[in-house]
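In response to reviewer comment 3 from the previous cycle, which asked for concrete evidence that the modeling workflow produces usable outputs, we include below a single protein chain processed end to end. The sequence was submitted unchanged, and the resulting structure tokens are shown without manual editing.
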Amino acid sequence: MDRNIFLIGPGGIGKTSSGRNLAELLGREFIDLDEKFMSGPGHIGQYISEHGYAKYVRENSNLFFEHINQSAEPFVAALSSGFLIAEVEIETVQKNRFAVRNGHSVLLLPHADPDECADIIVSRQVQRGLNLREEIERPKFLERLPVYRSLADQVTVIQGTPEESAKAIFVQLRGVEKTG
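The workflow returned the following structure tokens.
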């Protein structure tokens, strides 16, 4: 596959750890958009507090497009959870979606059942220490799930270690290459 591979989905799903392993299997560069932001503009939570979520969405998108424009070879990227779904900066989000559609997007989920998936994701998010509350995060996740699905070229239910998850994604990608 000669396109960029974008790992999408909610925070706490394992995009970063699975993505690093997938990039290694494919012999590609790996970028984590959250890490890129943290090493550039700064701590995400602090940045949002100081500049607002809309500015964060724009800056995050700018970092993404800078990387695309500088990369000569296809890469694997773990995208920020709201990168394709943010309720603000609609034009920026639409531009992000267009770019991701030019690659191959893989939605990572911890379970095939939406309610089980919500239980797992929300539990992880609440435990991350970001002052998130279950009663807000659960409906938000369930509302966003169909959007994530509509943007995904493939859905991978990840279970086990990041290495096992990366192998499952890798196998699915090889199947796409053979049929594509």
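The mean pLDDT is 90. We consider this sufficient to address the reviewer's concern, and the full set will be provided in the supplementary archive.
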